[in-house]
């Protein structure tokens, strides 16, 4: 497993560098295959990156954006990753991108996962770009410690697609791409900021128990090189 560490003096420099790299990757995919795909994460960390990327001059009409994971909440909820991406990424030049959500207004979250799996089947085989985040508990995507579906979610031999997840640390029920869907992205990045996250990363790198810190699955078993972007 190859890991590349990129450190920057501040969040603005990180956002610019990551946006530059993602723009190059998306443009190359469009040049090679006529279209590009990117899966992004939620939370507060990627907002500046989204804002920066949204102004990059690429053929956004040929880019499909989806989410690494999502809460089972309506898209107008302030807890929705859909709303976060709509507000901070799908604007300016990136307003021309197509967006495929993971949440659907269905009777059960299992129904939503099935629809999301079907809707995303053609856009991530593999993803051109997948940007992960990490929580203070060592979760990434919605791979939470002691999550209800964690073993299945981390199984690289399992199917691609969207799974459900429940965990004490997750709050709402979650929808998440499986590790098998993300691990072979042509460009796989982990975007983290702050000393606390760096400490969590170091702890994860020093151990091996993936159920304790699921980010270890990405650090140790991803099929693509992992580029870690960090700023204080």
TrEMBL record:
Gene3D superfamilies from the entry? 3.40.50.1360
An example GO biological process term is: carbohydrate metabolic process
EC number, UniProt record: 3.1.1.31
Q: What keywords would UniProt list here? A: Hydrolase
| Source organism, top-level taxon | Bacteria
Q: In which pathway does it act?
A: Carbohydrate degradation; pentose phosphate pathway; D-ribulose 5-phosphate from D-glucose 6-phosphate (oxidative stage): step 2/3
Q: Which residues belong to any copy of the Glucosamine/galactosamine-6-phosphate isomerase domain? A: 9-222
Q: Which GO terms describe its molecular function?
A: 6-phosphogluconolactonase activity
- The reply on keyword Transmembrane is no
Function according to Swiss-Prot or TrEMBL: Hydrolysis of 6-phosphogluconolactone to 6-phosphogluconate.
Protein's UniProt name: 6-phosphogluconolactonase
Which gene is the coding source of this polypeptide chain?
A: pgl
